[in-house]
UniProtKB/TrEMBL annotation:
This is Sensor domain-containing diguanylate cyclase. Pfam families: GGDEF (PF00990). Residues 375-505 form the GGDEF domain.
Amino acid sequence: MSPILPAEEFVRLEALARYAVLDDLPAEAFARLATLAAQFFQAPIALINFVAEDSARCQACVGVDLRVLDRQVSFCSYTVMQPGVLVVPDLQQDPRFVDNPLVTAPGGYRFYAGAPLTTPSGHNIGTLCVLDTQPRGGASTAEREALQNLAALAVDELELRRVAAELEREVRARDRLMHDLRRVTRHSETLLAIFELADLDLLPQELAEHAAALVADVTDLGWAGLVTTDGDTWHTRTVWQAPGLNPQLAERLTQPSPRGTDPSGDAVHFLDTPAALARTRPDLLEAGVCVAAQVPLGSSGDQPSHLLAVRTRPLAWAAADRVLLETVGRCVVAGVRRKAALDAAQREATFDALTGLPGRRSFERDLDARVAGEEPFALVRCAFTDFAALNGALGHVEGDVLLARCAEALGRGLTDGDRAYRLDGVHFALLLSASPEGDRETAERQAREAPARALSAARDAGLELPGVSVGTALWPRDARSARALLHLASQRRQADERRNSSAAR
């Protein structure tokens, strides 16, 4: 006969699961309690077992080796269904057990006394019981209390084990958390270091090398290299490798390989599987690489096209690793674009794109150099007057063509060491050699020859420019600083423009 399971049986099984005892071997503390129970009752057999869904499993066995019993034949299945001690003086006389094979077998059990193992939450998850092959008259109050006390000690042991297990889990969780925090901190520090690299005046290749070394330290890289494209071939140069990396692998990774699919845009290609490696870099798979990443660097020509990062262990890229590698790519690409923009700005500041003449930055640099030297010179400021109206009549395209022709004529015929500059719009400057004894009128007359060539060039194009204003200042006769010299030449040009305007009226 099997006991009828109560409605809260599922909750009882959940309580049993919290102690995680079903898969453990018998514990020494439980064995001592079972031995005490057998000695106190002078019984040949004592057990501590836990009643699961389909079985009763013994944690301690004295006098018999019963590890697992079917729940339908276990006497303890009834004990866990009641609040107190269950005593059966003669199992053959109890209708619940008269047909039980543990009773009917030769030398079967006749006496049973069991106390439930009741958890602090009130659930009976097992029993501490004693058995005899001879019937008995029952159990005294003292014996019942002793059995209950021993069962309570068994529960105390369970609670100690549970609390210890929870503490161990908490310690492991805290250790994992600390490990994760340290990893996040290292990743954050690496990200900051990469961003700081981007602010340095480094070539894209140098930026990629330093960034690869930073990333390798926190992402468990085995090797990293810069890949340059040459026609249908990839050439790779090592920028970082792990200590102890197989030298043969490092050599294979730097051998020229057939060009595969270049990473495009800003997206990093993460090759986490053998199939992905076989499609993109079969040579890496053959060399023993397990995981790789191609980080586009946004460069071309003789500059690296991408950074190749590999692992020799089958460890997929974690989310934090991906962020770092993507950041490296973005920083290097930004560095490439910034350098291109700076180069363009430098060219624009050094040479005027429309006229081909040196620009304001070149003028300021050359003026400072002349002032620092010992040779006298003339600074000429000139501007084509009323050019805006002419530009409006011709249109911007034709106006730009005319201005470029005038600028070319302005710089033509200058002696060695003399230069013409476009400062902005229709404003130009010339730095001309001058003799120590020369006067300003002579220098200005010589200075007007260049603008005159510009006006002649305009007339050759069939256009008549309203005119040009000129102002000249001599170094060191007229000023004691480059700024004062430039200011004086500008004032004289403006005065010349006013005189020309008055004469035209």
